[in-house]
Specification:
two-stranded antiparallel sheet; alpha/beta; globular; 43% helix; 12 helices; TIM Barrel
């Protein structure tokens, strides 16, 4: 059987985690994290807007496993400034190297050039990565339920909460959602992309959202290409969207922002 993309990612993340442990002890990483500027409220920022207003979590990524290079002229600082000016609510930064050609330095650059809350879009399997994320300037992390056990998710979430960070619990199916609802975070990301096949289906958001209690804030992720897509998802009482590829392929990000938002700002 051919290993899934997610399994391949997990295999090399284990090596990256070992490298982090070699660079600094867990205690040292914690100390570095605690010295960082206090986090900006990611969930708080999202809650400021209500329907019909839309929240755009604008993503910065150079490439993906399924599409290859997405943006050749890749300048994280310039993109971050443009997102700020265009009206993004928050920013997401891909830092994974082997599959997305991201760098931890990208997040540091974005932090220096933006006052918006930042999600570190990373495959997190160990607490040490949470400390690293806070040190780099991230305000929010991602826990991908397809990638971690319940025990790992609880441990990762605890460290993030202790650091006053927000956590997006990402799910793709009902089993993952039921597990996610056992955690403390009230921020759920529904990924329309299957991380094992990288195929997308917007119906994923619709089918899962009905099982999520009202006190949760839901983000729809992946496969959102135009305003029609956003309006379809918004019918499910969702107004937060994580969008990356559309902007990364754009020659005029500000114009495409306007097209996506329409009157939903």
């Amino acid at each position: 059987m051919v290993a899934s993309i997610l399994q391949k990612i997990k295999d090399y993340k284990v090596k990256e985690i070992e490298s982090l442990k070699t660079t600094h002890s867990l205690k040292n990483w914690e100390e570095k994290a605690l010295k960082a500027q206090p986090p900006i409220g990611f969930l708080k920022k999202l809650k400021e807007k209500k329907l019909p207003a839309f929240n755009i979590i604008a993503e910065i990524k150079k490439a993906s496993p399924s599409k290859g290079i997405i943006r050749k002229n890749f300048d994280p600082a310039s993109i971050a400034v443009t997102y700020d000016e265009a009206g993004a609510t928050c920013i997401s930064v891909l830092t994974d190297g082997p599959s997305f050609q991201g760098k931890t330095e990208d997040l540091k650059i974005v932090r220096r050039n933006s006052t918006l809350p930042i999600l570190r879009k990373e495959f997190i399997f160990h607490e040490i990565q949470v400390f690293e994320s806070r040190y780099l300037g991230a305000d929010c992390i991602l826990i991908i339920m397809a990638a971690v056990s319940d025990t790992e998710a609880i441990a990762i979430e605890k460290v993030a909460l202790d650091l006053d960070m927000d956590i997006i619990i990402e799910v793709h199916n009902r089993i993952e959602l039921d597990r996610a609802l056992q955690l403390k975070s009230k921020l759920i990301g529904i990924n329309n992309r299957d991380l094992n096949t990288f195929k997308t289906d917007l119906n994923t958001t619709k089918s899962l959202n009905k099982f999520i209690p009202n006190e949760y804030h839901v983000i729809s992720e992946s496969g959102l290409l135009n305003r029609e897509d956003l309006e379809i998802v918004a019918k499910n009482n969702i107004n937060s969207f994580l969008i990356g590829e559309t902007f990364m392929r754009s020659e005029n990000i500000k114009n495409d922002f306007k097209k996506l938002l329409g009157n939903h700002f």
